[in-house]
Amino acid sequence: MSARPAQLLAGLLATAGVTHFAAPKPYDALIPEALPGRPRTWTQASGAVELALAATLLVPATRRTGALLTAGLFVAVFPANVKMAYDWRHRRPALRAIAYGRLPVQVPLVGWALKVAREAPGR
Q1: What is the CA radius of gyration of the chain?
Q2: Where are the domains of the chain?
Q3: Where are the alpha helices (DSSP H) in the chain?
Q4: What does the pLDDT look like over 100-122, one tens digit per residue?
Q5: pTM to 2 decimals?
Q6: Hey, how many other C-beta atoms are within 10 angstroms of the C-beta on 13?
Q7: Is 48 strand, coil or helix?
Q8: Residues 72-100: pLDDT tens digits?
Q9: What are 11-20's pLDDT values in tens digits?
Q10: Cα(60)–Cα(102) distance, rounded to whole angstroms?
Q11: CB 26 within 8 A of CB 81
Q12: In terms of Cα–Cα distance, which of 57, 76, 73 is closest to 65?
């Protein structure tokens, strides 16, 4: 029952969360237009959520809940990945491949978060 998978997942979330604030413009473009408010608000909110979830994964007492919420986040952001794939459908093949490649990546990310939840202390 190593903490390493949780730590690595926390690192991924923390890195993504920081980039939402350090370089928000690409994330703003992923926000579906159907959402109310400004895209930047959604970008910053999702970055803050990623940072908070990273913290929960590092604390054994909150790891299970944090991992389950992380799995939910990965499902919740899937529409943004679909939007990116659609928006990038006419870009260069390499960029299109990145956009399309993000779609199936959500599945192992959800699986990783659920594995961390299953292996969390106190189960």
Answers
A1: 15
A2: 4-119
A3: 4-22, 25-28, 39-58, 60-76, 78-87, 93-119
A4: 998 999 999 999 999 999 999 87
A5: 0.89
A6: 25
A7: helix
A8: 999 998 888 898 899 989 999 999 999 89
A9: 999 999 999 9
A10: 30
A11: no
A12: 57
Instruction: Indicate if the alpha-carbon torsion angle 97, 16, 110, 35 is positive or negative.
Output: negative
Torsion sign, CA atoms 30, 13, 93, 108: negative
* Pairwise CA distance, residues 80 & 13, whole Å: 16
* Encoded amino acid at 39, one letter: P
Rounded Cα distance, 39 and 24, in Å = 10
Q: Long-range CB contacts (< 8 A, 24+ apart) of 101-106?
A: 103/78, 106/74, 106/75, 106/77, 106/78, 106/81
CB 53 within 8 A of CB 6: no
CA 92 – CA 106 distance, rounded (Å): 23
**Residue entry with tokens 């999702």:** 46
How far apart are alpha carbons 117 and 107 in whole angstroms? Answer: 15
Amino acid at residue number 118: R
